[in-house]
Amino acid sequence: MSIVSTSLSRIKASPTVAITQKARELKEQGKEVITLSSGEPDFDTPDNIKQAAIKAINKGDTKYTAVDGTPDLKKAIVQKFKRENNLEFKTENITVGTGGKQVIYNCILATVNPGDEVIIPSPFWVSYPDIVLLAGGVPKIVECGEKYNFKINGELLEKAITKKTKWFILNSPGNPTGMCYLRSELTDIAKVLKKHPHVHILTDDIYEHIFYEEDNRSNDDKFINILEVAEDLRNRTVIVNGVSKSYSMTGWRIGYGAASKEIIQAVSKLQSQSTTNPSSISQAAAVEALNGTQSFIKERSAEFKKRRDYVVKELNSIKGLSCVNPKGAFYVFPSCKNTMGKKTVAGTIIKTDTDFVSNLLDQEGVAVVQGSAFGLEGYFRISYATSMNELQKAILKIRKFCESLS
């Protein structure tokens, strides 16, 4: 009999981590690999944030902190919500964890009972369903393909809700597609949620600041949180965010959440028996990130937009591929459906998106992630959070691979 718990056997290792690890191993073997599988900005953490961490170390701020965040960081988060989202919270409504993933994990684990359903629009971030499974819940996947611009709407949500529904997860800008919900779309979703008071909302806003202004600017060229269109959903909504993506602080591991006092207390109790507090040094750095200059965010977002424009244009010129133009994050989610049934130079028939991704890595040394890992077959995800030089080389290799198919 296996020593591994039944709950753990229900889930799989993160596919994005697995692909990145395989690419790393190939590099260690001396092979040239371009990694477009990791959701990590190539920009460095800004100097003012680094200096805040160094200052904290020199001051001796190296001890345990409150389990769910220092008072200074909680105040900075409260101010951030007021300044950027026009949302009022108290520090008692804030929790800080070791990355946004832990905040989501804690929230689901602290509230989901066996059999509770969690509605997850597909394509989805790979960890959502497995976190629900670990909690004993039931992931209810709602496929929102290209026909729906990779976004759920009120009608689809209404059909998915049952008496067992506990949570609805919303991610905008989204991973893996980069698609963003507009004010009108959130209003439509909110109307449905108001009819079902037993359903709670978890909104994952980790890519909030990577939101592109287009040349034909409109009122939709701005990130919108669902509470900005439906304040009356506040008591059953959890907002998850963090400093990883916007501030290039992936390794610092700081995420945060805002919710009702009841949920925050439950999350804190759970965290007290797992990791306890996040790093005191990282928290000091996060205070500076939120309170300090924000000017670099717009500059970096503009650079991401240039990369997006290049990648989308080039992908749409490659035989067998097509790609919609996302409005945020640093991902594109092109279709490879028209390569299905084709044969590689090694004689392998491409039957699935996993076949496409595996053969692209083996033949051309480009690491991307199959769409089926995100709940939608026939696509693959490219992260363009890397240099333009690397992207140009990768596109040439992807083009070469597709043109070699027969």
Describe this protein's structure.
With 406 residues, this protein is α/β, with parallel strands linked by helices. The protein has 2 domains: 148 residues, Alpha-Beta Complex (Aspartate Aminotransferase, domain 1), CATH 3.90.1150.10; 231 residues, Type I PLP-dependent aspartate aminotransferase-like (Major domain) (Aspartate Aminotransferase, domain 2), CATH 3.40.640.10. 39% of the residues lie in helices and 12% in strands. It is built from 13 helices and 12 strands. The strands form 3 sheets. The protein has a 7-stranded mixed sheet with strand order 2-8-7-6-5-3-4, sandwiched between helices. A 3-stranded antiparallel sheet has the order 9-12-11. Strand 5, helix 8 and strand 6 form a beta-alpha-beta unit. The model has no long low-confidence stretch (mean pLDDT 95).
> What's the architecture of the largest domain, going by CATH?
3-Layer(aba) Sandwich
The CATH class of the largest domain, by name, is Alpha Beta
SS content category: alpha/beta
Major sheet strand order: 2-8-7-6-5-3-4
Main beta sheet strand tally, sense and closure: 7 strands, mixed
What would the average pLDDT be, to the nearest integer? 95
Strand runs, count: 12
Number of domain units: 2
User: So what's the oligomer here?
Assistant: single chain
Shape: globular
Question: How widely separated are the two ends?
Answer: 47 Å
Number of helices: 13
Spell out the CATH superfamily of the largest domain.
Type I PLP-dependent aspartate aminotransferase-like (Major domain)
Assess the beta-strand content as a share of residues: 5-15%
**What is the CA-based Rg, rounded?**
21 Å
Indicate the low-confidence ranges by residue numbers: none
